[in-house]
Amino acid sequence: MPQTVCSGTMFTTPSGFSPHLACAEPVEEEEEEAPQESPGPAACLTDGPPFTSASLETLIQNLVPTADYYPEKAYVFTLLLSARLFIPPSELLSRVCELCIKQQQLDQSPLDTVKVRKFGPKILQLLREWTETFPSDFRDEKMVGHLKDIIRRIAPCDEAYWKTLNQMLQKLNQRLALMSQGEESFFKVSLNASSISDKLVAFKTKPPPIQKDILSICNDPYTLAQQLTHVELEHLSHIGPEEFVQAFVQKDPLDGTQQPSFSEQKKTSNLEAYVRWFNRLCYLVATEICMPAKKKQRATVIEFFIDVARECFNIGNFNSLMAIISGMNMTPVSRLKKTWSKTKTAKYFILEHQMDPTGNFYNYRTALRGAAHRSQTANSNREKIVIPFFSLLIKDIYFLNEGCANRLPNGHVNFEKFMELARQVGEFMTWKQVECPFEEDRAILLYLHTAPIFSEDGLYLASYESESPENQVEKDRWKALRSNVLAKT
């Protein structure tokens, strides 16, 4: 069924993260084995057993490079991703820069040229990873100010640092501009689609409808599956890793501070746009099925979408696959018994089995692992495509967040939780970087984004017009819907 952005009441069962992370208690039991805090990077992940917990100060200390030390890339990603649950990115970068200044004595004159020249490339590497992985953080002018300040301090030892910074900022600005264009285009598409959705004729008439249908635009299931994959990958390309955690920014129980809400910062816009796309595809499938006046035509459309769903499965596009199945499972479609009796459903039941929610979507997760393995060993972009069922991914992350405390009773950050979060988000980030290997068909893409769709009431009305109500409840609803439409017209 159509999805909503995750909330506390959206899900009922926990999802597939590591069993030992189901709550904070097991982490507490291992607390004695965790490394003690130290003033330098000696306690880093690379120097001993992985953290299960540590104070935020220790975690930040281990993020700071020195002349002879640089944190593992996985550690950098994990902390940059999760630290925003406790402090804003600008404060994190400020603390990193302060520690760099103190450790490298960058506030003294003259500078230790040999030492700074060893340190310079490492701090630039950290800043490059930050700007490339979390570019939206640098929409905040404070972030850019911190970049320039730290480079200003080390530049006397090597003027090439300014050139490197300028190149970094140029790439960052290009990336931010592309992100803004993408967000604006998605917003316009959403407005356009919603504004025409109510213009569909409420009562189906015998003459051929003026509105085009999907089969008149594309009658090849594989081609439509390819174009759906284009849409999916385009949406994924605009979703940053921070969007997965920003929704969970909340009051820190230790210091009582309230971080800016995610909605206020408008940092879930891409994630929310992707959920809206899933819902639109569900309703588009249901609309296309309910629109034709004859059951033979409706059966043809159902069989077409079954074939499209199968091609999506073969490609590795599980999000479109689930949207299509959800659209066909909507009550206005599923109640069309005469139509379904004319449909060849063997392939549909196989696909439905693959996406069966039983056992926490066990069949789907098995198929996803297979697609992920294929992607890792692939020689072409075609084989690298992995588009997960997005709402289930959000559900997994939601339950990881809800099932594990951010902090332990001793005040330490539950770093084990955030390593698992980074693993899940990092896997998604790898999948979304794949370039779509299929040629675009602008006519099909335009139709997918802008074709009118029925509202829920419109779907029920079209369904009742296609096959008459079977019981009194349906008859009463049909009567009420007809009355409402006549009142509006």
UniProtKB/TrEMBL annotation:
Ranges of residues in domain Ras-GEF: 220-469
Superkingdom, taxonomy of origin: Eukaryota
TM region positions: none
Residue stretches of biased makeup (Acidic residues): 26-35
Residues covered by region (Disordered): 25-47
Keyword list, A-Z: Guanine-nucleotide releasing factor
Organism, scientific name: Characodon lateralis
Name of this protein: Ras-GEF domain-containing member 1C
PROSITE patterns: RASGEF, RASGEF_CAT, RASGEF_NTER
InterPro entries: Ras-like_GEF, Ras-like_Gua-exchang_fac_N, Ras_G-nucl-exch_fac_CS, Ras_GEF_dom_sf, RASGEF_cat_dom, RASGEF_cat_dom_sf
